[in-house]
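RECORD TYPE: inverse folding
INPUT: structure tokens
STRUCTURE:
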């Protein structure tokens, strides 16, 4: 039979082993979690860029329908809208 001291010693060893296992698990899980967080931000940014490009083309098409508008004016309007995303 186990005495009180031997049970306490076993529990302490068990706790030490468990904390080591927790650190190893954390070392494996943390990079995966950070990759998922990074992917969420990247997909959000890509979606935003896609929407800005779509808006710029729609605004250019609206402006291009007018009678007294030159191609240069349409291009300038679209470039101005795209400058919010792309540095030129």
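DESIGNED SEQUENCE:
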């Amino acid at each position: 039979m186990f005495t009180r001291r031997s049970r306490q010693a076993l529990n302490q060893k068990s706790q030490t082993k468990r904390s080591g296992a927790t650190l190893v698990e954390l070392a494996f899980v943390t990079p995966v979690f950070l990759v998922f967080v990074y992917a969420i931000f990247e997909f959000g940014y890509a979606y935003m860029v896609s929407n800005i490009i779509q808006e710029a083309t729609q605004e250019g098409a609206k402006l291009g329908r007018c009678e007294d508008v030159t191609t240069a004016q349409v291009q300038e309007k679209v470039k101005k809208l795209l400058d919010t995303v792309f540095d030129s």
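NOTES: The chain has a mean pLDDT of 86.
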